[in-house]
Structure formats: structure tokens, C-alpha cells
UniProtKB/TrEMBL annotation, chains A, B:
Keyword Coiled coil: no
SUPFAM superfamilies: cAMP-binding domain-like, Winged helix' DNA-binding domain
Keywords for the protein's UniProt record, in alphabetical order: DNA-binding, Transcription, Transcription regulation
PROSITE patterns: CNMP_BINDING_3
Protein's name according to its UniProt entry: Cyclic nucleotide-binding domain protein
GO cellular component annotations of the record: cytosol
Domain of life where this protein originates: Bacteria
InterPro entries per record: cNMP-bd_dom, cNMP-bd_dom_sf, Env_Response_Regulators, HTH_CRP, RmlC-like_jellyroll, WH-like_DNA-bd_sf, WH_DNA-bd_sf
Domain (Cyclic nucleotide-binding): residue spans on this chain: 18-135
Transcription in keyword set: yes
């Protein structure tokens, strides 16, 4: 996490997402622009959270580690999203792992500077109730995905969310397959079989140490409404 | 849903759960004591919600209907619990079905009378943020239960939550088994096999049209921390 001293870029994001409208008071003086580099964690389960983060650019995956030691994918985060809203009210520790999948920017408010102001601000509190409501609805829907959709659909959604465009325009899907099978709540063998199905369908092609997406529309059709 | 005119009983529940402490203003004049009779719905998916309900006595199951038409159990509600907190802020329709498993009481606040007061009340809004945070954490954990725990554990938890003590002291588990298999995210056949396992273990005994719980401790051990 790197603090970026770029007032113009900070103002751009504040305007783009109307961050001023969230608060009754002017909070600009407390706002910091933060860069998380690819694969960095914004928060980890059970760690103390020091900031409210407004996720304004990039992509992140949200997962928990189950009692049996396996990871489980809960959601993908895209702008605009708030992190730490749950924790600031109850002063609890982070309940999920949020890892960025590409370089990502957040506008951050340090808890210890703003907590007393925000807990008395009905406008901010209404915003937070709304944001928590949305997360709760999303959580209910995503929680049913593992039961409702075959792995092929979940995998298509995962590939779309995590693939990276290279300099030469190739859409590249890589990552630790063992880890991905856990995130998607399946076995390694079933994941391999399903990757091979997607290859037969012409959606992806196996390369040396990654998969190339060759027909993105096939993946989009399969992914439809998942993990929104 | 029946409005009960019993000021003493109403006051008893208000005191028991310190409902006064939730609000900055005195809201007693708006509070109504409501009885939901066994199997009645407090809310149904996509219906408009007219009240915030404080669930003060009884037991309810919370479920959604998936896109494939099957039901999925999300949680059990016991006192103390708030319903409608999500909906009052965003004015959205109910996102789950909440059906009471026994006669249950709620203290209700009519939306249209209290909404303007509550949305300006930081104390109530903080309470709601907290309550939504807890629901969100619970939802995350419960969402992983279907992946993490075998059906036997989930079924034990379900039997404990839904069984009824008869007049002669028998703990009786009944219900539509097809419906129960859907709620638990499994097949009818797998449910029957698992009921038969619990019978072999001496936890339950098959009767004419119900199961009798004969060793509740076996079920408690299996259920442990599920669907909290």
C-alpha cells in the first residue's frame, strides 16, 4: 500500500464517485489516495483495519478461509465499493481477505481521525446502511452460486474476472490451479476436466504456463450473472 | 399476523431487549405487539414490507427461492433479531422468506409513521449498521455451510431447530421431506439415507408420520456451530 501524492488524481476520483455527497461535513482533508499493487492485500481476515477504503479503480477478489483450511471465493469487487464500513461501526477485525487482481486505487479515510465524526453523521450512516444492505443481498445470492451453478459457469466467471490483457493484446488466464479449485469450492481434478471442456468448446487454449482466452463470448454466455 | 392489545406483555418485551435504547426519541407510542401463528410468514420475497419487526419470542426459518425453483435455507432466527432493517433504508422489497416455526411475537414499528424520524436518528442508524454487519457476517458463514459440512450435520441442526415438544413430552420432527431436502440443498434420496443413518445411531426413531428424537445429545454434537 503506497500513499500517492497526486491531488489532481485524488480529486478526479472524489468527483467521479461523488464522495463529497456521502458526508454531511467536508472530509476532503482526511482523504488519502492509496495504490495497492497487483496481488497485494487490502485486508486479511482477523487483522485490524485502520481505514475506510473507497475502492475507485481496479479489481479485487474477496474470499474467506474455511474451518477445514480451504479458501472460498465470496465475490469480486469492482469500483465503486466500500471496504471497512462493517468494521468501523462495530470496531471488529476484518472478516474477509481482499486481494487486488491488478493495480488498484482507493480513497482512504483513517479510522482514528474520522470515526467520531462519522458515527454522528446521519448522512454517512444512511450511506453505510445502504452499502451493507447491498453487500448482504449480494452475499445471499453469491452464497447460493456454488449450489446452483455447475463449475463450468463459475469457472467462466472466474476466468473473465481474473484474466489480464498482455502488451501484445493476448488475454491471459493464469494462476495456481490448486488455489483456484479451492476458491471455487471444487476438486483439482474436476477443475482440470472443466478447463479441458472449455478448451474443447474453443473458449480457451492451453499455452506453456497459462491459458489464452480465444473466444470471450463463450465465457460471457456461461458466466452470465454470476458473482455480481 | 394478529395485533395483540396487551400493554403489559408489550412492555415486558420492550424492557427485556432494551428497545428504548435503540432510539434517541421515545418510540413507544408507535410500537405494536404482533403475534405470528405457527407456519405464518413474517415476510415473503419481493413483497413490500410495512414494518420494522423486532423478533422477541419464537423461532423462524429464513430461506430464498433459487432461480431453478428450489428453496435454500439461509438461517434460523431466534430472539433477539431485527427484520426490515435492510428494507427501511433502501425502501426495497423483502429479499428473503421468513416463516415462523412456532407461535412468535414481534414488536413492530410501522414504516410510514417512523421512517422520517429514524433516518435522522444517528443512534438508530448505528444500531442498524451493527445489525446489518452481524447479518452479513452470519450470511458469509452460513453460505459456506453447504460446502463445508456433510448433510448429516446440517440435518441434525435442522431437526434441533424445527422439532416440537408434544403434550406428552415427545420431541417430534415432522415436515415435508421433499421440501426439507431442497432447503438443505440436497436430494430427496440422500436425505432419506441420512435420516436412516441418524436412526441407526440411535438419535431418532421412525414413527407413523414423523420422527421422534430419542437422543438429543447425538444431534447436538453433530449440529455444533451450524446455522447460527
Amino acid at each position: 500500500m503506497i500513499k500517492i501524492d497526486d491531488e489532481n488524481l485524488k480529486d478526479k476520483y472524489i468527483k467521479k464517485y461523488n464522495l463529497d455527497n456521502i458526508f454531511s461535513n467536508d472530509m476532503k482533508e482526511y482523504m488519502e489516495l492509496i495504490l495497492f499493487e497487483k496481488n497485494e492485500f487490502i485486508c486479511r481476515e482477523n487483522e485490524k483495519i485502520e481505514y475506510i477504503f473507497f475502492f475507485v479503480k481496479g479489481k479485487a477478489k474477496v474470499y474467506i478461509v474455511l474451518q477445514n483450511g480451504k479458501s472460498l471465493l465470496l465475490s469480486f469487487y469492482y469500483p465503486f465499493m466500500v471496504l471497512g464500513d462493517l468494521e468501523i461501526v462495530s470496531l471488529s477485525r476484518a472478516s474477509t481477505n481482499v486481494q487486488v487482481l491488478e493495480d488498484s486505487y482507493c480513497i482512504a479515510l483513517p479510522f482514528y481521525k474520522v470515526r467520531n465524526i462519522l458515527l454522528e453523521d446521519p448522512r454517512y450512516l444512511r450511506f453505510t446502511c445502504n452499502s451493507l444492505s447491498k453487500k448482504l443481498k449480494k452475499s445471499t445470492i453469491n452464497g447460493s452460486i456454488n449450489l446452483l451453478y455447475p463449475l463450468e459457469n463459475r469457472l467462466a466467471s472466474y476466468i473473465l474476472a481474473t484474466s489480464q490483457r498482455t502488451n501484445v493484446g493476448v488475454l491471459k488466464f493464469s494462476g495456481n490451479l490448486m488455489e483456484i479449485s479451492e476458491l471455487l469450492g471444487t476438486s483439482y481434478r474436476h477443475l482440470l476436466r472443466t478447463l479441458s471442456n472449455l478448451t474443447s468448446k474453443g473458449a480457451i487454449r492451453k499455452r506453456s504456463n497459462y491459458y489464452e482466452v480465444i473466444e470471450i463470448e463463450i465465457l460471457k454466455d456461461l458466466a452470465s450473472e454470476l458473482y455480481k
